[in-house]
Amino acid sequence: MKTRLGRQETLLLSYLQMRKTQTVRTGELLGPLHLTPDQERELFRRMFRGGLVARVRPGLYLVPAHLPLGGSWSPDETLALNTLMEDRQGRYQICGPNAFNRYGFDSQVPNRVYAYNNRISGERAIGMVALTLIKVADRRLGGTEELHTAEGVTALYSSRVRTLVDGVYDWARFNSLPRAYEWIKMELSTGRIRAKDLVTETLRYGDKGTIRRIGVLLEREGIDKGNLRKLERALSPSKGFIPWIPGVPKRGSIHRRWGVVINETA
Fold first, then answer.
1. Model pTM greater than 0.70?
2. Given this model, what pLDDT does residue 1 score?
3. How is domain 7-62 classified at the CATH fold level?
4. Is 82 helix (H, G, I), strand (E, B) or coil?
């Protein structure tokens, strides 16, 4: 990181602090700082290489609210993700491993941020923040809760119940089965979630496979028949069977009501 700032760097930071903003786009400094386009481009290049700004995308940068005392500056995860999504006028929710850790299902702290969103697919880096962006249809966004950071920024996470549904639905991406079954059983037994809410979120955000697997789980847990019938009504008759544990040979007893091969002890 640059430890000594030039006149232009100082003016840029002072100007943005005066405006109480941490985002700046190319072209916005020409008038206020009396720069030519070439001077502005060179200024951003120097500050980016010096670790004073983080590039969200070409032409859009994040700057620190206050100059750090040492080391390279990087935005936090929430600021980086919010800025990217606001620029694309998109919606998002943090999901998968980050949500598993947030709710105490998994003790492993992810080294990147996973987020469902309706704009971008693929991996991005903003400063030191690594993002895995999973583009989904608008109808698959929802079931969220807000987290307010100490810096006054709001992050949007998948809710506790929605996260459990995604653990079954998106098992291949998150490597979350059969662990998600144990999480669900624990959450039900401790009363942190209600079967009714799990059924509602499963029907709203799951697919047929998710419904069938969660149907088996809830029936085994002795959930009332009314909630089981809600799941059952969402299924059409099928002669095919899916495995209880994906990736394991389909050998075991067959749960015919839900069309699931119990290929490992639940």
1. yes
2. 47
3. Arc Repressor Mutant, subunit A (1.10.10)
4. helix
